[in-house]
Amino acid sequence: MVVEVRGGAVVVVVEDVKMMVVEAYNCVVNYNKNNSKDLSASLGIMSTTAVGANLEISNNLGETIEQEGLTYKEAGVDIDAGSELVRRIAKMAPGIGGFGGLFPLGMPVQMVWVTKLKLAFETGIHDTIGIDLVAMSVNDIITSGAKPLFFLDYYATSHLDVDLAEKVIKGIVDGCRQSDCALLGGETAEMPDFYANGEYDLSGFAVGIVKKESVINGKNISVGDVLIGLPSSGVHSNGFSLVRRVLARSGLSLKDKLPGESITLGEALMAPTVIYVKQILFGKGGIKGIAHITGGGFTDNIPRVFPKGLGALIYKDSWPVPPVFKWIQKAGMIEDAEMKRTFNMGVGMVLVASKEAAERILNEGETAYRIGEVISSDGVSYR
To answer: Which region is the signal sequence (predicted)?
Structure first.
């Protein structure tokens, strides 16, 4: 029995479903018992984006910012450093490097937390942040073709505000419903000496299942396969360190209207991450690879699903870019390459499919875009 870790999610590949559920649940419960009272333990294993959240909170956004094009690195998140860390770790643990690695079920459980929290505190929008948490876990799980089974959450705060916590948990429940998975349990911790009043931390853990013969791993991807983009709702849950720098530079507040639109900047930025579970699992026949477009954008995420020697050719203007990204780029004077490496740019998930399967997927009625093709070249290029 093995499980595959994808970000903050765990995909279980087993022959005996009953044993998987029992062992996975015991693994999660035992980990929570050992670590839930000590936040530093849950932060011991976290994504590059989570590290960025720490840096973001420590930044002084009131400082004078020179009028030059912004980058994600200047905002406190170094994608290159994160990639280098993964490369070094991969030497010690060869299974790491893609969206996840394989390890025995009894190994420690990984937890993630959402970098969007700072804006939730500032906007007062708390009822969708739980959807983001679930989405970031289950969307990683389905990249292997697995179905999410259950989810557990961890909520920590300075002093428990029951009304606020209820809103947060409602989002988690909504996310689980959208994912067709069970909210198996969770834990709440009050830590008055650790958090500022009114702030909280949120983490989660998802387990999914897939038959060995049904695992989607990208090994059969070949030149000429089609890249299909599934639309995002906006920024989703990555890039917020840079977003907050752009906001500070723009002179606008979260209550101001997104230029040219009827919604506020806060509403646009807090739009919950799309959960792609049902869209992908109900029509995954013929899908050879799936890339969840998170931190690193197209540039870093699409190549992770390809065999060596293959790359992506993206068709420019083949999908609509949401207005929020156009505002971010203009207000921050951000270069095209930086935007493509930091944000999803309107595509939250990329499917790699044969030409025949692509025609079926594109004609099924769900919104999807033919955004490119697989070519004999490394990396991502645009035409």
So the answer is: none
